[in-house]
TrEMBL record:
<dbReference type="GO" id="GO:0102102">
    <property type="term" value="F:homocarnosine synthase activity"/>
</dbReference>
<dbReference type="GO" id="GO:0016887">
    <property type="term" value="F:ATP hydrolysis activity"/>
</dbReference>
<dbReference type="InterPro" id="IPR031046">
    <property type="entry name" value="CARNS1"/>
</dbReference>
<dbReference type="GO" id="GO:0047730">
    <property type="term" value="F:carnosine synthase activity"/>
</dbReference>
<dbReference type="GO" id="GO:0035499">
    <property type="term" value="P:carnosine biosynthetic process"/>
</dbReference>
<protein>
    <submittedName>
        <fullName>CRNS1 synthase</fullName>
    </submittedName>
</protein>
Length: 180
């Protein structure tokens, strides 16, 4: 974080940045990052889902003092790669499981949430994966998308990407075992 301006009466509290990402299975079973939402909180008590209003990655990084656009873009690229690699690892693991172990013949993961914490390690910003989930990240990312539209931001790709993932799954189910 950026130090407080000289003469500031209030000390700046150590802050933590939780980054919630949502990734979905796209055509060809490739992971695709759909949405990123961040929450800022105090470092000694990491922010939980629903405990803070979500905001965008770029503005969150600017609050943290990452002012160079190239640094923010590099961090966003690393976040995309880490999120999609997590989903790819899950898809590879699922492919090795039997249908019973997966939960049924058609059971597989289409949407995954991956939470990260942005930490300062040896004076460098590092992404630390916290957990994977689906429902909490989906709720947070949908809220961030809706809040953005309410303040005049253009409509994002989240609704389209989620609809594509669900329609692809439904289409595969409908034509499974049929001759076309």
């Amino acid at each position: 974080p950026v130090p407080c301006p000289p003469g500031s009466p209030a000390p700046r509290l150590p802050m933590a940045l939780r980054i919630c990402t949502l990734v979905c299975r796209s055509w060809g079973d490739r992971p695709q990052l759909c949405q990123v939402a961040c929450a800022v909180g105090r470092a000694e008590s990491p922010v939980r889902h629903g405990a803070a209003l979500p905001q965008g990655l770029d503005s969150s990084l600017q609050q943290w003092g990452v002012v160079a656009p190239s640094q923010r873009q590099a961090l966003a690229r690393r976040l995309r790669e880490a999120t999609e690699a997590t989903m790819a690892a899950l898809l590879a693991t699922e492919a090795e499981l039997s249908p019973q172990q997966r939960g049924g013949t058609r059971a597989h993961t289409d949407i995954l949430g991956v939470d990260f914490l942005l930490a300062c390690v040896d004076e460098a910003l590092e992404l630390v994966a916290l957990d994977t989930n689906s429902q909490r990240c989906l709720e947070t990312c949908v809220l961030a998308e809706a809040m953005g539209r309410d303040v005049g931001e253009p409509r994002g790709d989240l609704p389209r990407l989620l609809a594509e993932a669900m329609l692809h799954r439904a289409q595969c189910h409908l034509v499974e075992g049929k001759d076309i």
